[in-house]
Amino acid sequence: MELQSKLSSALSSAVPSVKLLINGEFIESRSDQWRNVINPATQQVLARVPFATRQEMQAAVDSAKAAFITWRKTPISTRARIFLKYQQLIRENMTELASILTAEQGKTLPDAEGDIFRGLEVVEHAANIGTLQMGELASNVANGVDTYTINQALGVCAGITPFNFPAMIPLWTFPMAIACGNTFILKPSEQDPMVTMRLAELALEAGIPPGVLNVVHGGEEIVNTICDHPDIRAVSFVGSTRVGTHIYRRATMAGKRAQCMMGAKNHAIILPDANRSHTINNLVGAAFGAAGQRCMALSVVILVGSSQDWLPEIIAKTRTLSVNAGVEANTDIGPVISCAAKERVEELIAQGVKDGAQLVLDGRKPKVPDYPKGNFIGPSIFTHVTPGMSIYDEEIFGPVLCIMFADTLADAITIINANPHGNGTALFTQSGAAARQFEEDVDVGQIGINVPIPVPVPLFSFTGSRASKLGDLGPYGKQVIQFYTQTKTITARWFDDNVNAATVNTTISLK
Prior knowledge:
This protein is α/β, with parallel strands linked by helices. The chain has helices at about 1-15, 55-70, 75-90, 95-105, 110-125, 130, 170-180, 195-205, 220-230, 240-255, 275-290, 310-320, 340-355, 390-395, 410-420, 430-440, 475-485, 495-510, and strands at about 20, 25, 35-40, 45-50, 135-140, 145-155, 155-160, 185, 215, 230-240, 255-260, 265-270, 300-305, 360, 380-385, 400-405, 420, 425-430, 445-450, 465, 470, 485-495.
């Protein structure tokens, strides 16, 4: 046992530890529970991440609560300038950030840069907080009476973010919350926290004061503490439906605001008049990019009418995709995040075969000679998929595409509306009439017309719906300003001093 303890201690000292960020300082956790951050292409241990103790979590909350007293009254122009500086620093460090992200998450370098860039767009939007946080005014709603609103910060807010977008999703949360005048506690995924921590370093460099942004790491215990803590006013979450449902119920029962973006099963309908090459290229990229590990992945395609004849071309295009480590040039599909994730996807593929779907392209056990230990799964395609099959009912979160068939657009819309999820959907067509019918009749929050992954730019809000979302207000855009602020409505009446004096004199003389 002594030898084992010495070996463990030596290993721990050789691997860097991920720090906590509390009150503007990066500190070493005193936790006795740690997890390895593993490169999914090589199984190399990159770092050790702590599961923060209760005392460390309380210190983060205390720091944020104390900082809120002054931060909430910081001029809005000062807050805006910090985020102008922050977006500049992210751009200057894009290559480094992408390298860290690829090493710990596995996605290709171009995908990693895209991950960061989509978060950067929200940082740029946060720099416009001066116009976003304005209230309303109505003058003379009665004689000499004005009514106006102000949007004030809530207090300490928190974000719980997933492994699949370790840069973009954190940047969806704390920049907008902090720009509105709140302080923030971020809990990134313990599977790939390193790029998030580098973004936190840059945030401090941009001028975010001590205590305004804090970062803790951990699992279920930290999540529950965030939901329960009386000093945390709002919680933002992106991740699985199971965890999101738990967080929403627990946080709202504790009187908090909560927004939970959860699981999905996104469909695309292909009409025969669609641009063939454009459509197939988009389908393949949206289905298999990021190894299918995104809540907006296009995991189901419904071929309508004669577009069913496109199936051989879809399969042929998919076969051209390269599976390799994300750092290698011309890689299309990197590894999935963990060995457990790989096993789960492979089990779902096997279950799809048992359920009667036709596996027309099997991506299990691809050959990646230079990375024999990687968590690789090649692109897989099923046809003749029906509701009730596991591969259709569950979010696979891997490079697996389910193909269904329908006779008409109306039949395809019926299939989509019967699915409980409502994150995103797309229609490929050259018919304006068909597009209008689709927009009006499909019951999904985010719609693409000849756009496979309809995630809106930050000028608009992320509007997933039904089982894909809990909470009325989405991240970024106009809705997130409502989420992170409390509206106060003021009705005011002021009197001229001379008028008051005349009124008083008249009253006295009458007596």
